Amino acid sequence: MSKSVIVVGTGNAALCAAIAALEKGATVLLLEKAGKDLAGGNTKYTAGAMRFAYDGNADLLPLVREQDDPRLPKTDFGSYTKDKFAADLLGFNDGRDLSPEQKVLVENSGDTMRWLASHDVTFEPIYSRQSFEKDGKHVFWGGLTLAAENEGVGLFEMEMAAVQRLGGTVRYDAEVTGLIEDQGRVIGVQVGDESLFADSVILASGGFEANEEMRVQYIGAHWDKAKVRGTPHNTGDGLRIALEVGATEYGFFEGCHATPMDLHMADFGGLDLPPSERKNYRKISYFLGVMLNAEGKRFVDEGANFRNYTYAQFGRAILEQPGQFAWQVFDSKVFDLLYAEYCFHDAHFVEAKTLEELVPLMTGVDAVQATQTLTEFNSAVDMTVPFDPTVLDGKGTRGLTLPKSNWAQRFDTGPYRAFPVTGGITFTYGGLKVDGAGAVLREDGTAIEGLFACGELVGGVFFAGYPGGSGLTSGAVFGRKAGIGAVC
């Protein structure tokens, strides 16, 4: 007799858990808090990029749908080894060793991508955001190369199609309000007044980023001002009901994925827009210019590293500035390098022919100090090093207390543009402790029988930041493990 599994959620992690459980012969029911139009959790809001370990083009090409893309023979994807992935994660650990969860992510990342491909989840190279043309070749940078076809929306649709092909069913408008226990074992869930029973329950309902009270409680006072980039339904429900049955908090609750976002965006990424357009409120080309706070001062090294490795921290840094906003300033020399979201129809910016005309247009900024900051920046740019956005080019500033380490260019070619930004939260880092099979653990290290978790609910994966594209991969890796663990 097949086992029955309830999966709470329909995002990437939930769908991967469902696919894995269905593969093992289980009967699977997915319960989605939202209606059908907002199903998919945060997955639909993403650009679909997935970071994983690979040794070269030969590992990537079988995952790419358009095998006849004329750019492929002229593309250098480089390599991204497990050691490099591990080193990148360590770079955000603030001195911590790799956690057990991070080791699992690194070790299983490549195999999980191939597993997804075996279920007709297809990918495409991220030419527009992760490569530059150099010497007639498309050169990828930062170890991030592939995204799901049609980005996050496509990932959701392809994974949902796999679930349905395998016989899984979904109920929408089905908010899980509690877990049902019998002698210490979880045997089902409550959906309002309705009791639903199963051999195992997998919590894949996201973090608490859409819960203002929990953001302030766990992350800090200014986080009530954060724009919620993703779904309004990730309000910490899974965390709450797991703690009620004895689970323990685990991971870095003060941390979260925070991204520079348009200051004037609506909360939840613009629910009136098609899902594929909601990501366009991001503003992550700051490395091509500078960011100024209300005091007219720079507050981060915009060129410290590729933006994959800095945007999560810089979104947080913006929220720590006076008024929780900043302005990103660009010279026209880089307009053609700015990501597409800077040309989005709802992008907010000011433009002027000269810096003297631009600065007063930057609402809320000390104009005198901003002018001084830009003048000093121009004088400090090292003009002996060529600008090269495909590498850490070392074209930095000299003599500034806060340097710009790479891609520093003078503001000397008008017109100039400035974009108002704030910090947007995408997902939280604190969650639950799970074992190698995805079972939720109590504080004493014993497993809560019948209860599993994956996705944002797995703590210990990220700390002070994360390399871009790791979140979806983590969801897939731990979702697959939870799906198998719930059946075996």
CATH architecture of the largest domain: 3-Layer(bba) Sandwich
| Major sheet | 6 strands, mixed
CATH class of the largest domain: Alpha Beta
SS class: alpha/beta
Radius of gyration: 23 Å
Percent of residues in helical segments? 10-25%
Mean pLDDT: 95
Unreliable spans: none
Instruction: Give the tally of structural domains.
Output: 2
Count of helical stretches = 12
Assign the CATH superfamily of the largest domain: FAD/NAD(P)-binding domain
- Outline type: globular
N/C terminus separation: 13 Å
- Write down the CATH topology of the largest domain: FAD/NAD(P)-binding domain
Q: Say what oligomer this is.
A: single chain
Please give the number of β-strands. Answer: 23
| Strand proportion | 15-25%
In short:
25% of the residues lie in helices and 20% in strands. It is α/β, with parallel strands linked by helices and 488 residues long. The longest helix has 19 residues, at 100-118.
Q: Secondary-structure map with pairings?
A:
Layout: E1 4-8, H1 12-23, E2 27-31, E3 49-50, H2 57-60, E4 75-76, H3 82-90, H4 100-118, E5 123-125, H5 127-130, E6 131-134, E7 137-140, E8 146-148, H6 151-165, E9 169-171, E10 178-182, E11 185-191, E12 194-197, E13 200-203, H7 212-218, E14 227-228, H8 237-244, E15 249-250, E16 256-262, E17 290-292, H9 311-319, E18 326-331, E19 350-352, H10 355-358, H11 367-380, E20 416-428, E21 431-432, E22 439-441, E23 447-453, H12 470-485
Parallel strand pairs: 1-2, 1-13, 2-9, 4-7, 13-23, 14-20
Antiparallel strand pairs: 3-8, 5-8, 6-7, 10-11, 11-12, 15-21, 16-20, 17-18, 18-20, 19-20, 22-23
Protein name: Tricarballylate dehydrogenase
Cofactor: FAD
Keywords: FAD, Flavoprotein, Oxidoreductase
